[in-house]
Amino acid sequence: MHEDERAHVEVHLTGQQFNASGPPEVVNGLFHRWLEECASTPGMAHALHRINARLDTVLLRLGLVLEREVQMVKELEDLTAEVVETQGVERSALAAIEGFAALLKQAVVDATDYASLKAGVEEQVAALLAKRQELAAGIAANPLPPTP
Fold first, then answer.
1. What's the pTM?
2. Fewer beta carbons within 10 Å, N or C terminal of the chain?
3. Contact at 8 Å (CB) between 22 and 6?
4. Do 118 and 68 meet the contact criterion of CB atoms below 8 Å apart?
5. Mean pLDDT throughout 20-30?
6. What are 99's strand-pairing partners?
7. Is the dihedral of CA 125, 128, 131, 135 positive or negative?
8. The three-state (H, E, C) secondary structure of 9-55, written as one string
9. Per-residue buried b or exposed e for 1-31, using 16+ beta carbons within 10 Å of the residue's own CB
10. How far is CA 77 from CA 23, 70, 71, 74, 145, in A?
């Protein structure tokens, strides 16, 4: 608390009045003493009871809002992690596709005629199909980090 902090409180309840200025801890202490004195005043006890009931309702609702905020933060963190994971899986799949494309290009370069081209492409496709479950599991299990 800073020395220059000051509080000002002015309250009017069922004919009772409280007005104070000064450091917050002093004003708080004065206000509580005033409330204790007012509680014995006819009608004031009922007014203070209603105020307490309303404050309880406000605090309950505030607690619910804070719980929801914590839940929303968790959901946002989970969603962010899911997006990052998905982006990594997409990059891994793209790397696999680019690798397959490179293999096909090399098959074209190595081919001397249509028959050898067809054989080279079919060989690469067969190799890829034979490993598709392994490849899919590897991509999902080891996603590349997303680019920033």
1. 0.42
2. C
3. yes
4. no
5. 81
6. none
7. negative
8. EEEEECCEEEEEEECHHHHHHHHHHHHHHHHCCCCHHHHHHHHHHHH
9. eeeeeeeeeeeebeeeebebeeeeeebeebe
10. 41, 11, 10, 5, 17
Percentages helix, strand, coil for the chain, rounded to the nearest 5?
A: 75, 10, 15
The pLDDT tens digits of the residues spanning 42-82 come to 777 777 778 878 888 888 898 899 999 999 989 888 888 88
What is the pLDDT, as a whole number, of residue 12? 67
Percent of the chain with pLDDT over 90: 3
Residues with Cβ within 8 Å of 31's Cβ and at least 6 positions away in sequence, in order, are 9, 11, 18, 20
